[in-house]
Amino acid sequence: MSEKFKAIILNQEGDNFSREVKEIEKNFLKHGDVTIKVEYSDLNFKDAMILKNGGRLVKEYPHIPGIDFSGEVLESENSKFKTGDKVILTGWRVGEIYYGGYSQIAKVNGDFLIKTPENLTNKQSMMLGTAGFTSLMASFAIQAREALLLGERVKDVLVTGATGGVGSIAVMILNKMGYDVTAVTGKDNQIDFLKSIGAKNVMNRGEFDKEPKLIDKGLWDGVVDTVGGKILANAIVQTKPNGIISVCGNTSSNELNTNVIPFMLRGIKVWGMDSASCSIKRREFIWKEASKLVDFNSLEKSIRSISLDELLIEFPKILKGEISGRVLIDMNK
Fold it and tell me: Model confidence at 249, in pLDDT bands (50, 70, 90)?
């Protein structure tokens, strides 16, 4: 690859915010000790917020966004990595306070990277990205109920925001784990899709988007919630005794108005999923397990592959809830 390469550059001068694909040189990159030829990235809700106006997350401009990427090491000053290593990066505030993956070449702190497991390709890793990684974390949290309660089985699991990136992959993984998954969506035209990836039942989000009771009939051994707000509040009061709720999104609301009764009477646990800064050891375990729990042939049917230039047109759709499944950015496209 020549010294010049393409990247999305964000700029802000006063009230004027701009985004464009530009040709830049390696000396533009100012962070880190490992230089990577980026092969793939993806589109997450947070990426779209940053592309829109910085999302109150970017502190310095010009800036390269993109919170995820996978690729091959070109140069390394870090003893953990050498030229030719395949690597994955998600989280660590890359794409926010550090230059990110919407670039054909990236330079990052080697402590943020893991080597791509032998049973996974770089393309597959970004078919998952932060959304898929979060889905895996959330699903393992539901599975942990069995260990915490000394073998008491999980059976019924609810997934909210089920057509989104996190939700759809969670449906697939939880089904693979052997659970009966009920998917919640506001998109009636996606019912067949949700059943095709493993949902046993599909419910309309209108049944949850209402004021919750103090406590309701216990229906769920576990919940993966990607939306927050009233939907999460209703899921809490419908969770069975000793159930676990994995909280990993806020696409509906940051607010949560609930009460202590379900926690006191049923002993349920709410477990927040912090995928951005979990340990390297945990990351390595989760990425290694990905190929065992994700049917990539099925997943690929819901993946759209686009270029960096196309991303500037596509990203507003995720903010409007108009994207189902995942968007992959192919840096060679």
Answer: confident
How far is Cα of residue 150 from the mean position of the Cα atoms in its chain?
Answer: 30
Identify the pLDDT of residue 2.
55
Residue 84 has what DSSP assignment? T
CA separation for the pair 24, 218 (Å, rounded): 56
At 231 the pLDDT is 96
**C-beta separation of 245 from 222 below 8 A:** yes
**pLDDT tier, 1 (very low <50, low <70, confident <90, very high otherwise):** very low
Q: What ranges make up the beta strands (E) of 109-254? A: 114-115, 156-159, 180-185, 199-204, 220-225, 239-247
Average pLDDT on 218-244 reads: 96
Task: Provide the 3-class DSSP secondary structure of residue 287.
Answer: helix
What is the pLDDT averaged over residues 302-320? 94
Q: What is the pLDDT of residue 6?
A: 97
Backbone angles phi, psi at 178, to 5 degrees: 100, 15
Residue 261 CB: number of other CB atoms within 10 A? 13
Rg (CA), the chain: 20
User: What is the model's pTM?
Assistant: 0.91
Task: State what percent of residues in the chain have pLDDT above 70.
Answer: 99
For residue 25, give the H/E element and its range.
Answer: strand 16-25
Q: What is the spatial order of strands in the sheet that 269-272 belongs to?
A: 199-204, 180-185, 156-159, 220-225, 239-247, 269-272
In the chain, helix, strand, coil percent, each to 5? 35, 30, 35
Long-range contacts of 184-189, Cβ-Cβ distance < 8 Å, separation of 24 or more: 184/158, 184/159, 184/160, 184/208, 184/231, 185/161, 186/321, 187/163, 187/324
Half-sphere exposure of 278 (CA within 13 A, CB side): 19
**Amino acid, single-letter form, for residue 117:** P
Residue 58: φ, ψ to 5°: -90, 130
Angle at CA 97, nearest 5°, toward 228 and 127? 60
Q: Which residues contact 91 (CB under 8 A, 6 or more apart)?
A: 67, 112, 130, 133, 275, 276, 277, 278
